[in-house]
Design goal:
rod-shaped, mainly alpha, 71% helix, 4 helices
């Protein structure tokens, strides 16, 4: 009885393709948007625009590379390689988007709290005091 090594071999080839794609992208698509840089709201806004532009720029390249695969002998292996690289690029851009959106959400929450505090001061005529801190209860965020 003959063995069928095709399925395990395909899995290994797929993993190798993904690793090669990740290694090729190690320099990064948008290296200027590091995790530290994305903590700034202006940089986060710029990152969202840059990732959208980068996706628009990469889409035709991926389609062209996939079309080129149909001219090769091992069509499916080529397509798997292109798909692996595309996934790695998409994952990197998604990570930048996610960190940028988190920064903007955090900034919006701070602004909302500031406006609420200003309104309370304006309505009551005195600075807002935290009743929990006077009672000896922990203030939110102070135990972290």
């Amino acid at each position: 009885m003959a063995r069928k090594p095709a399925a395990p071999l395909r899995a290994v080839v797929g993993v190798v393709c993904v690793l090669l794609a990740h290694t090729a992208l190690a320099g990064g698509l948008l290296p200027e948007f590091t995790e530290q840089a994305l903590r700034n709201p202006q940089t986060a806004r710029a990152a969202l625009q840059a990732t959208q532009a980068e996706r628009g720029k990469l889409a035709p390249q991926w389609r062209a590379r996939e079309r080129a695969c149909f001219e090769r002998y091992l069509v499916e292996a080529c397509r798997a390689e292109v798909l692996g690289e595309r996934r790695a690029a998409s994952t990197e851009l998604d990570g930048i988007d996610r960190r940028a959106r988190a920064t903007l959400r955090h900034e919006a929450a701070i602004e909302k709290s500031r406006k609420l505090a200003e309104r309370l001061v304006r309505d009551t005529g005195s600075p807002v005091e935290n009743p929990q801190s006077e009672a000896g209860l922990p203030v939110a965020g102070s135990s972290r």
